[in-house]
């Protein structure tokens, strides 16, 4: 297990998904057979992180608590944090400053889904860097729509540009950030952008200026999905359904990860399976019993 703490940013208004998110947080919406937040939660678990802070709006926190509890059913410790207003992704580090207490962090956006064989190993490489910051680059066909990371021939980061007219590469910066313990202080030092937000790109530039920003490139065989629009939400659900139907394996399943990591035992897994006994999800969990180490 790592000493790094996890952060899930599950705030915001979800206005791009209105009207379906006017009565429920975007990160509680279903992506096929699980709540959206299960997927970013699973990414942090795959990184070996058990101490996780979840940042929500004041209005939505009770619903998240009802769904996730204190995390002990998965061998986790969840801490609940409030973002009073959506003032930029980098604001998360100010909200979480006391919780982090100088520890390095891994922050994932609550509407991002990652998939790929070898993902745990890539996360482990990022976690091993105790100083500086690591971003994850994903090749896209339309980089001008994203924050883009520029690299030299050796893969060293040379620039990060938000929605560039002429992209320096085809690698978008995904919503997953491994930063050292200086992130809150750095976030406090940056000025709001013209739209009044603390931009994550500006925060990352402080690491770039120090020569301490690294990029992990997610190549063929990886998938990164941002579920912020109606179309991308549907695409994500179809992607998960196709994977699970073809492979007979769950994607983004906290119970499975906790069991395989040794954070919960056979009895705890059985109790969780019984809870979902009327569903295919429960049947899948039942089938996991006795498989650890095989």
UniProtKB/TrEMBL annotation:
| Keyword Glycosyltransferase found | no
Name the coenzymes or cofactors required. Mg(2+)
Describe the reaction catalysed, as an equation.
dTTP + alpha-D-glucose 1-phosphate + H(+) = dTDP-alpha-D-glucose + diphosphate
Nucleotidyltransferase found in the keyword field: yes
Where is the Nucleotidyl transferase domain positioned along the sequence?
5-240
Q: Which UniProt keywords apply?
A: Magnesium, Metal-binding, Nucleotidyltransferase, Transferase
Q: Which GO terms describe its molecular function?
A: glucose-1-phosphate thymidylyltransferase activity; metal ion binding
Question: Per its UniProt record, what InterPro entries does this chain match?
Answer: G1P_thy_trans_s, NTP_transferase_dom, Nucleotide-diphossugar_trans
Q: What is its EC number?
A: 2.7.7.24
Instruction: Say what the protein does.
Output: Catalyzes the formation of dTDP-glucose, from dTTP and glucose 1-phosphate, as well as its pyrophosphorolysis.
UniProt similarity note: Belongs to the glucose-1-phosphate thymidylyltransferase family.
Instruction: Please state what the protein is called.
Output: Glucose-1-phosphate thymidylyltransferase
Q: Which organism is it from?
A: Loktanella fryxellensis
The taxonomy runs:
Bacteria, Pseudomonadati, Pseudomonadota, Alphaproteobacteria, Rhodobacterales
């Amino acid at each position: 297990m790592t000493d790094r703490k996890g952060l899930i940013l599950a705030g915001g208004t979800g206005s791009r998904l209105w009207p379906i998110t006017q009565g429920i947080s975007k990160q509680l919406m279903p992506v096929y057979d699980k709540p959206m937040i299960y997927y970013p939660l699973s990414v942090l678990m795959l990184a070996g992180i058990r101490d996780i802070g979840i940042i929500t709006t004041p209005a939505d926190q009770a619903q998240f608590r009802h769904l996730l509890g204190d995390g002990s059913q998965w061998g986790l410790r969840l801490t609940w944090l409030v973002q009073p207003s959506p003032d930029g992704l980098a604001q998360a580090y100010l909200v979480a400053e006391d919780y982090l207490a100088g520890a390095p962090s891994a922050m994932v956006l609550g509407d991002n889904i990652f998939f790929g064989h070898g993902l745990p190993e890539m996360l482990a490489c990022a976690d091993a860097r105790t100083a500086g910051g690591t971003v994850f680059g994903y090749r896209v066909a339309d980089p001008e729509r994203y924050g883009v990371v520029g690299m030299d021939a050796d893969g060293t980061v040379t620039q990060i540009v938000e929605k560039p007219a002429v992209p320096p590469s085809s690698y978008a910066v995904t919503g997953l950030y491994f930063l050292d313990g200086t992130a809150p202080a750095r976030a406090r030092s940056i000025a709001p952008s013209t739209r009044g937000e603390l931009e994550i790109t500006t925060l990352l530039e402080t690491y770039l200026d120090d020569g301490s920003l690294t990029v992990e490139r997610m190549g063929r065989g990886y998938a990164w999905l941002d579920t912020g629009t109606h179309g991308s939400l549907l695409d994500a659900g179809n992607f998960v359904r196709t994977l699970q139907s073809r492979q007979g394996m769950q994607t983004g399943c906290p119970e499975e990860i906790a069991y395989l990591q040794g954070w919960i035992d056979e009895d705890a897994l059985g109790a969780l399976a019984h809870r979902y006994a009327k569903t295919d999800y429960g049947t899948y969990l039942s089938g996991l019993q006795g498989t650890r180490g095989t």
